[in-house]
Amino acid sequence: MTPILAVALPLCCVFAADFQCHARSSRFSMQASHKNAQKQLQRTSQNLTDSISAIDAFEEELQSAGARYTFLQQIKAYIADLCDMLQVVTRPLEHSACLCASWAWTCALPEAKYPLCTL
To answer: What's the rounded Cα separation, in Å, for the pair 42 and 105?
Structure first.
């Protein structure tokens, strides 16, 4: 064996052993990275599922709030119409009360003990 070969062969074995060690550590590192990526994927998947559930709940709540808002708007319109109707109905009553008071009428029914319009 030549002296260069005698020195090169052990160096080659050292490099091969170093390469194997490096390959082994890279493999373990990649396996650890893969496990971490899988865990992260599971967490992300769970968060996505939770977010979708929360969005569905918010949509239902929003629809319910919209229905309540529509109902309250209808009630508001009904009360406004009722107030307008009462304004129209009370005008003749106020007018007749004024006539009754100014002409001193007693608007009593025959069965009643007391007159309806008294001064």
So the answer is: 89
The contacts of residue 106 (CB under 8 Å, 6+ apart) are 115, 116, 117, 118
Split at pLDDT 50, 70, 90, the class of 28 is confident
Query: pLDDT (tens digit, 9 = 90+) per residue, 32-89?
Result: 899 999 999 999 999 999 999 999 999 999 999 999 999 999 999 999 999 999 888 8
Q: Got the DSSP string for the chain?
A: --HHHHHHHHHHHHHHHHHHHHHHHHHHHHHHHHHHHHHHHHHHHHHHHHHHHHHHHHHHHHHHHHHHHHHHHHHHHHHHHHHHHHHHHHHHHHHHHHHHHHHT-----TT-SS-SS--
